[in-house]
Design a protein that fits this description.
It holds the Pfam family Phage_tail_X. This is Tail protein X. InterPro entries: GpX-like (IPR008861). The chain is an alpha+beta fold. It is globular, with a radius of gyration of 14 Å. The chain is built from two helices and two strands, in the order E-H-H-E. The longest helix is centred in the middle third of the chain and has 10 residues. It has one domain: Roll (Membrane-bound Lytic Murein Transglycosylase D, Chain A). Strands 1-2 form a two-stranded antiparallel sheet.
Length: about 70
């Protein structure tokens, strides 16, 4: 498990996306479970908040990713 200290303007879903490469309801649920009361902090996290980021593995996709640009 990784611990992240927030900076001014950090939002939880952007932190999750930067850490895991994707962010969905499952990821957010696991982060909320690992951090009691973090949802009460609001959308923009106060600077200096310590967040536990659990070990999450990206799901395997069976179809190739669609690229808008090559």
């Amino acid at each position: 498990m990784l611990t992240y200290q927030t900076r001014d303007g950090d939002v939880l879903d952007a932190i999750a996306y930067a850490q895991y490469g994707y962010c969905d309801d499952s990821v957010m649920s696991q982060i909320f479970a690992a951090n009691s009361g973090i949802a009460a902090q609001g959308a923009v996290m106060p600077a200096g908040t310590m967040i536990n980021l659990p070990d999450i593995v990206a799901p395997q996709t069976s179809s190739p990713a669609v690229k808008l640009w090559d």
